[in-house]
Amino acid sequence: MTETLAKVYLEQKKFNNAIQAYRILSLKYPEKSGFFADQIKRIQILQKNKL
Q1: 21 neighbors 1 (Cβ within 8 angstroms)
Q2: Which of 2, 10, 11, 22 is deepest in the core (most CB within 10 A)?
């Protein structure tokens, strides 16, 4: 799992896949977990606005 893949999922509007990717990255790189949490929140907002 990479940040690039998470970004690709996001560009493809595969929000659930992107969130899962960032969760995995958060566990893999705990020093960046704050950044990944922010990305997840951003994606969740995008999801709500799309529905």
Answers
A1: yes
A2: 22
